[in-house]
Amino acid sequence: MFHLPGGLPGFLLLHIPLFLLVLWGFDEIVRDRRRGLWFSLILSVSGIFALTVHGLLLLQGGTAFRTPASILLLISVGAVSIAQLVVTLRAAGRLTLSRQC
Predict the structure, then answer these.
(1) Around 77, how many Cα atoms within 13 Å sit in the side-chain half-sphere?
(2) Which residues contact 89 (CB under 8 A, 6 or more apart)?
(3) How far separated are the first and last CA of the chain, in Å rounded?
């Protein structure tokens, strides 16, 4: 797990604050705040980055992430992240156009 202290439990505990951050970002989007769009953009790019890194590790012969569940999760994260990026960019374009009028 990238030499993180705590092994697997530490790795899993790291995701608790990340989950709370995602919930905060969702709240910002629901409230239609501009920083919600920024958060959505960062989150979608992060998902695409995660898919790319894990895909490269798989292509280099890595043994991790080879279970069907892991591969399905990676594909799902990639698909959702790409869709989210498209929707976010469209929403940002509408926001920019509405502020110009």
Answers:
(1) 18
(2) 41
(3) 50
Whether the per-residue pLDDT at 28 is higher than 70: the answer is: yes
What angle (nearest 5°) sits at the alpha carbon of residue 82, between those of residues 77 and 26? 70
Query: 23 vs 17, 27, 54, 68, 70, CA distance in Å?
Result: 10, 6, 24, 28, 23
> CA torsion angle for 72, 78, 84, 89 (degrees, to 10)?
-170
pLDDT in tens, 62-78: 888 888 998 999 999 99
pTM, full prediction: 0.77
Where are the domains positioned within the chain?
34-100
Alpha helices in 1-101 (DSSP H): 7-30, 34-59, 68-100
Residue type, 68: P
Q: How far apart are CA 36 and CA 96, in angstroms?
A: 14
